[in-house]
Amino acid sequence: MNVEEEVERLKQEIQRLGNIQPDGSYKVTFGVLFHDDRCANIFEALVGTLRAAKKRKVVAYDGELLLQGVHDNVEITLKATTPPQSSS
């Protein structure tokens, strides 16, 4: 799986585990993602995938490096995707 595919899978998992917000974004804590069995099986390096997604501005969270235990309560936000504008 390449980085782009992993970022897409990460988006799906955040939507599955997270809570939708009024603006259409989703929020989940790092601990929920890290301790989820399905995520553990999908992502060989969850922290690396999160960093790649953050670099691509797909997700947002405080800090650069998330560590299990220390950062379990850090909120990760999957940014809302805006639907394409129809030209009518």
UniProtKB/TrEMBL annotation:
Protein's UniProt name: Costars domain-containing protein
Costars domain span: 1-79
Family designation: Belongs to the costars family.
Organism name: Hibiscus sabdariffa
Pfam entry (one): Costars
